[in-house]
Amino acid sequence: MIRDTSAQDTVLTPAPAWRRRRWLVLAALLLAGALAWGAPRLWRSLGAGSSVSLARLSVAEVELGPLVRDVAGEGKVVAAVSPTLYAGNAGSISLLVQAGDPVKRGQVLARIASPDLAARLAQERSNGDALASESMRAEADARQQRAQAQSQLEIAAITHKTALNELARQSQAFEAGATAGAQVDQARDAVARAQVALQQAQSLLTLKDDATRFELQAKRQAVERQRLQVKDIERQQDELAVRSPVDGQVGQLFIADRMSVAKDAKLMTVIDLTQLEVQMQVAESFARELQPGMAGEIGGNGQRWTGRVSSVSPEVVNNEVAARLRFDGAVPEQLRQNQRLSVRVLLDQRDKVLTIARGSFVDEGGGRVAYVLHDGQAERRAIRLGAQGLAKVEVLQGLKAGDRVVISGAENFNGAERVAINP
Predict the structure, then answer these.
(1) Same domain flag for 292 and 333
(2) pTM for the whole thing?
(3) Could you read off the pLDDT of 291-349 as tens digits, one per residue?
């Protein structure tokens, strides 16, 4: 029976005091080193108030170099001249071409049969002939009436002359004592009556000429109006033959053969393949700087062509503006309508400019604030930006070459003045 373990106990000799002091000194040295190494980090953490991992941020360095501002995107080939043809009148249409057929300027592409217009044209021509006949009859009547008035004037002139002769005879006879004075007075009254009749005949002829002139002028104007009306209907009749306004190719057909169409209905489009342009959509912020004449580059089918901005739409649709580029020189033959091409327009190019990569910080806060990394912290700094490109932006104030700036992810800082950055 085992009573206790006293037989197994071993008496230990206590360690010397100098050995215990050595271990305490070593521990104190280790603690001091840890404090010396971690105190700055602890102080920065306490001063920053918060910390963010560097992996959650995008950082770029401020550089001094060239700044190229351009607009790049995808465009599609469109025809600079692509007229749409409309029906000049209602009727039944007969197509003479199909979509994709090459056409020449002035070539008849379709014909519209309009019985109503044909009947109206025949009626107006008949009315024109009737008015012309009426005008000629009025001219004949005018000549006849003038002849009568002229005859009355001549008779009045003869009567006046006869009365004058009679007065002269009676006066001679009275002086010779062969007749009474009453005969002379009667002859003198006859001359007065003849004079009045002559003046009335002259006035009647003048009035008849004026009336005839006005009447014939009205008749001629009526004939001219009718002639213009017939000419207008003939023009409408000619427009029933739909002709191509340009050399090109038939595009889209909006109607079918033998179809009844209304007046001004869309019929088809004609594409002028010799005047192709490339249309691209540009963000509204860049569209304000686009101007006709700016140089551009168009790429596709493994080739590159130079071009220039020909027009910029004044209308903004979905925060975008449509811009068109025209090829320098001849239009490439292998291009087709609506073909997709890459487009780049050069807005500005500068040398030796302080730049930084574009990031979300440009839009956040209006590009007036940036966080600069320094000694394990991100410090909030006021800046001023200048020209902006797709890849880089110009720095005008607040940064210098070599500064490392948080260009994306600064929203994690919640607007703090200083934030600790964990590796």
Answers:
(1) yes
(2) 0.50
(3) 888 888 899 888 889 999 988 888 888 888 889 998 888 888 778 778 899 998 888 78
Residues 283 and 332 in one domain: yes
**Position 308, amino acid:** R
CATH label of the domain that carries residue 311: 2.40.30.170
Range of the domain at 174: 115-239
Same domain, 60 and 167: no
Residues 6+ apart with CB under 8 A from 154: none
pLDDT along the chain (423 residues), means of 10: 56 57 69 57 49 84 85 86 89 91 92 89 89 86 84 86 83 76 81 86 85 86 91 90 90 90 92 85 80 88 88 86 88 82 85 85 78 86 82 86 87 83 79
Strand 51-53 and strand 241-243: pairing? unpaired
Nearest to 202 by CA among 190, 191, 213, 194: 194
Q: What is the 3-state secondary structure (H, E, C) of 276-294?
A: EEEEEEEEHHHHCCCCCCC
Token pair for 171: 């006066």
> How big is the CA angle at 307 (ends 305 and 312), to the nearest 5 degrees?
140
Q: Cα separation of 408 and 135, whole Å?
A: 90
DSSP assignment of 293-336: T-EEEEEETTEEEEEEEEEE-S--BTTEEEEEEEESSSPPTT--
pLDDT digits (tens, 9 = 90+) for 359-380: 888 877 677 888 888 888 888 8
Total number of domains in the chain: 4
Give the CA radius of gyration of the chain: 54
Which residues touch 379 (CB under 8 Å, ≥6 apart)? 371, 372, 417, 418
Whether 25 maps to a domain, the answer reads no
Residue 3 lies in a domain: no
Contact 136, 143 (CB under 8 A): no
> Does residue 277 sit in the same domain as residue 264?
no
- Residue 165 in any domain: the answer is yes
Q: Does 191 lie in the same domain as 121?
A: yes
Same-domain status, 235 and 306: no
Q: Does 418 fall in a domain? A: yes
